[in-house]
Amino acid sequence: MKLAPSILSADFANLATEIGKVADAEYIHIDIMDGHFVDNLTFGANVVKALRPYSKQVFDCHLMVTNPENMLDVLKQAGADIVGVHYEACPHLHRTLVKIKELGMKAEVVINPATPVSVIEPVLAIVDQVLVMTVDPGLGGQVFLQETLSKISQLAKYKHQHALNFEIEVDGGINDQTIQLAKKAGATVAVAGSYVFRVENPVERLNALRIGAAERR
């Protein structure tokens, strides 16, 4: 299972140092919020660009913004590898996902906890990744919503039945216990923020997540 530490929970004054602490994780998850689609206001493409020289990891950029299509060109220039856009924020979802891919980045569709999988089925054949929010978007440190597990399972079943190869990512409330539930349901990528960064030794927490993902229930 791939791990994606979220810098939303890192020390904003020392982001380059913070991502260095988790250099053996596959992804760096970057939450971009506009204070409109969600209440919080965080990073922009300028932060992606500033951090790019400090890491060769996959930059997994999760857009929690209105009009996400307006940010795609600058994110490409900044060095983003994956761009995730919310179903709930995209009136022209297919067009937005296609543009991401045309720019040479991987396209991800994101759904909130209350959004059913059925609404994104028309685009699952073109995406590289699906992000299932396992908390409500906008704030770190929330508790994992176990009712989202059925959506992960539904996606995994659809992926198998249609011979697709998109990653299934989970974001919110991930720790060494909930990662087991997510993986069993079919998740292949796990975002973890406060569990990793708000401790003295992030490396130990990454190892705990790997051990948790390897557990069989």
From TrEMBL:
Residues binding a divalent metal cation: H29, D31, H62, D171
SUPFAM superfamilies assigned to the protein according to its UniProt record, in alphabetical order: Ribulose-phoshate binding barrel
Pathway: Carbohydrate degradation
Protein name: Ribulose-phosphate 3-epimerase
Entry binding sites for substrate: S6, H62, G138, L139, G140, G141, D171, G172, G173, G193, S194
Catalytic activity: D-ribulose 5-phosphate = D-xylulose 5-phosphate
Keyword annotations: Carbohydrate metabolism, Cobalt, Isomerase, Manganese, Metal-binding, Zinc
UniProt record, GO biological process: pentose catabolic process; pentose-phosphate shunt
Cofactors required: Mn(2+); Zn(2+); Fe(2+); a divalent metal cation
GO molecular function: D-ribulose-phosphate 3-epimerase activity; metal ion binding
Positions annotated as active site in the UniProt record: D31, D171
Upper lineage: Bacteria, Bacillati, Bacillota, Bacilli, Lactobacillales
CDD domains named among the record's database cross-references: RPE
PROSITE patterns linked: RIBUL_P_3_EPIMER_1, RIBUL_P_3_EPIMER_2
Function recorded in the entry: Catalyzes the reversible epimerization of D-ribulose 5-phosphate to D-xylulose 5-phosphate.
InterPro entries cross-referenced by the UniProt entry: Aldolase_TIM, Ribul_P_3_epim, Ribul_P_3_epim-like, RibuloseP-bd_barrel
EC number: 5.1.3.1
Cofactor note: Binds 1 divalent metal cation per subunit.
Recorded superkingdom: Bacteria
NCBIfam families the record matches: PRK05581.1-4, rpe
GO CC annotation terms, alphabetical: cytoplasm
Family label: Belongs to the ribulose-phosphate 3-epimerase family.
Organism: Ligilactobacillus equi DSM 15833 = JCM 10991
